[in-house]
């Protein structure tokens, strides 16, 4: 089920290798425990795709939120935004 509205992304500062961390938070608005699979994109100010990764957030209870941290796969420079491409609740 499409759960893009249940998920947010917040970018952090690059680590010593230039990889960008992103906190991905899923808030479960359903009445039962759910898992989330989230496609995360790293983009430049012009909207060009620089990198992508997948976040898995398991066992989010009803009415609860859970956060995981993912990193870009490669070193990125300049201003980078993090976006949720798709999110599935299952």
How would you describe this structure to a colleague?
- The chain has 90 residues and is an all-beta fold.
- The protein has strands at residues 7-11, 21-27, 34-43, 49-60, 65-71, 81-89.
- Helix content is 0%, strand content 56%.
- The model has no long low-confidence stretch (mean pLDDT 96).
SSE arrangement:
Layout: E1 7-11, E2 21-27, E3 34-43, E4 49-60, E5 65-71, E6 81-89
Antiparallel strand pairs: 1-2, 2-5, 3-4, 3-6
Salient structural properties:
6 strands, elongated, three-stranded antiparallel β-sheet, mainly beta, 90 residues
Strand residue percentage: over 45%
N- to C-terminal separation?
A: 7 Å
Mean pLDDT: 96
Sequence of strands across the biggest β-sheet: 1-2-5
Question: How many helices does DSSP assign?
Answer: 0
Describe the biggest sheet? 3 strands, antiparallel
Task: Provide the succession of SSEs.
Answer: EEEEEE
The helix fraction, in percent, is under 10%
- Report the principal-axis shape: elongated
Gyration radius over CA: 13 Å
Q: Which stretches are poorly predicted, pLDDT < 50 over at least 5 residues?
A: none
What's the short story on this structure?
The protein has 90 residues and is mostly beta strands.
